[in-house]
Fold this protein.
Amino acid sequence: MALMRDQIRHLQFSGAKAADALTGLVTNNVLALSTGEGQYAAALTAKGRMVADMRIVRTAEDSFLTSTSAPAWPGWHDIVRKYVNPRLARHAERPLHTLTLAGPDAARALQQLLERLNLGLSPQPVAELRPYSALTLMTAELDWYLIATPELGDIPAFDLLLPGDLLSVVSDAVAQEPTIVPGTDAAWETARVEAGRPLFGPDMNDTTIPQEANLGELGALSFDKGCYTGQETVARVHFRGHVNRHLRLLSSSTPLPAGAQLLALDGKIVGDVRSSVISPKLGALAIAMVRRELGPGDQVLFNDTVSPPAKVEILR
């Protein structure tokens, strides 16, 4: 499917000190990235709570592009304005449009799209791009980017980041590819929840510690880099303890509304529902924050108005 996701905001860093300025703000090791490589990361408060999650791609030796969801954008933008000296690293929002192609055949369709636009084949085939890796392309003297995104888990997905002058050109080329069908926000949301991928706002917020949102498992946390804001809390959890709750993917025979409380079989409150969808393949699904002692295969109760409460299973 092809889907416009203009709720994503992009901020570019450039200059000789761009890597140093950026790595001091986020949980991952920006300095380890080579040109064309990317990573998942987060920005935190001094107490280690989430401010934003983001994708970071090194587009050139002295240039980085960060991408965040709309709910995460204000916090991230505010941190950058406060703590990045523009004399050391320039930063500015890039008005790029995000056109996402996702599905089992997305890589082949994108390879054909490059040919349709007379760009030829990349030295690295699209299908071989690692998660968060990027290709910088040139059309009509305008740069645009193709980035492999793992947001849908095992479903291949790629973001095309397009300046406004190229949007209609590339969109028309996508429309001419017979194997690509239009997507919807609802379809993307369902696929995201099926993959168990958290979203800032509904699933995690400024009360969330990164490990509660499984950001360690998602590759967003480095434990061998230099200092960054909130590092003490993240390191303490990693080396000395654990979090008391974390996000889990649930399945249910009945829809699970966001905000609903979840109960243990003995009636004790053990969590709450965050994102909720109805999957054509798997039925009612939800991402929920639950107590750490609950794991795959365990059952909890959804305490709605029916009696007895509906049973819900933790998938992963």
Q: What stands out?
A: The longest helix spans residues 164-175. The mean pLDDT is 92.
